[in-house]
Amino acid sequence: MSRLIRGVSKNARFVLVDTKDIVQEALNIHKCSPTAISAFGRLLSASVMMGATLKGEDVLTLRTMTDGPLSTMVATINKDGVKGYVSNPEADLPAKENGQPDVQNLVGRGTLNVIKDLGLKEPYVGISTITSGEIAYDIAYYFVTSEQTPTVIALGVDLENETTVRSAGGYMIQLLPDAEESFIVELERKIGAIRSVSELFRGGMNLESMLHLLYDDMNDENPETLIENYEILEEKEIKYNCNCDREKFYRGVITLGKTQLEEILEEKGEVEAECHFCGKRYSFKREDLGEVL
Ligand SMILES: [Zn+2]
Question: 71 with 183, same domain?
């Protein structure tokens, strides 16, 4: 089960996630290339952090539309879990010189949509530019430009091999309104000094120790001091979860109309629909479609 912790300090709020199981499930379902799962896993992890406080029927969706080989990615989360899909999961690129997956070029440049359906009449749709393709930077950019919230975000997906995720997750720290300048300076210094999320996981860190590291003021003489005290408000488990069912696909299939359904039945003997998010297949025979034929 993947895990999330979130909380606050005087000047900021934070979320940290361990999404290894979610990204592993996404890899199993979508058969992504190593570079594609590195990109998709980052987007899924970001959506988990951004959806940390969703309640009831609230839904948050992140959609990237870019000019790289990956083309489109979608991650959507509600209180029951997160799910997503990639338009070209098999797209891949050679690793960069430093051995890291070339996520930036696989994603490319384009648009990020942040859609929040909070049960109001109209969902909120934030539109932002993807200028780096590296995902974490692009989401931080969204927060600064669309929500006027200075945000530090780091994401990492580390693979054991093509089919196994070693670790995945990240952290996000957002400044509260009127945050003190001194805290911002300390935080920036801190973020610049610590290793990547994947390296921290490899070093055996869990979310709590990562959080402590982020707030540690790195005072050699007095090793137990923090930039400021923090409080964990919530800890929860999250999973990859698709809520599709046969009824929903039935309603979709019948919109094809009598003529087209007859044609498909004639040719294939059944009408089949596949869920983008979980790969589950739903098959409808003539007798299932009696209502419209
Ligand atoms: Zn599904």
Answer: yes
Q: What is the CATH number of the domain that holds 268?
A: 3.90.1280.10
- pTM here is 0.94
The SS3 call for residue 11 is coil
Residue 78 Cα to ligand 1 midpoint, Å, equals 14
C-alpha–C-alpha distance, residues 142 and 112, integer Å:
8
Question: Rounded distance, CA 94 to CA 191, Å?
Answer: 28
Domain residues for the domain of 251 are 246-289
Structural domains of the chain, count: 2
Distance 28 CA to ligand 1 centre (A): 14
CA of 84 to the centre of ligand 1 (A): 10
How many contiguous H segments (helices) and E segments (strands) does the chain have?
9, 12
Same domain as 254, residue 205:
no
CA R_g for the chain? 21
pLDDT in tens, 71-122: 999 999 999 999 999 999 999 999 999 989 999 999 999 999 999 998 888 9
Ligand 1: centre distance to CA 25 (Å) = 13
Q: What is the pLDDT of residues 109-152, one digit of tens each?
A: 999 999 999 888 899 999 999 999 999 999 999 999 999 999 99
Alpha carbon distance 131, 111 (integer Å):
9
DSSP string, 88-106: -TT---PPPTTS---HHHH
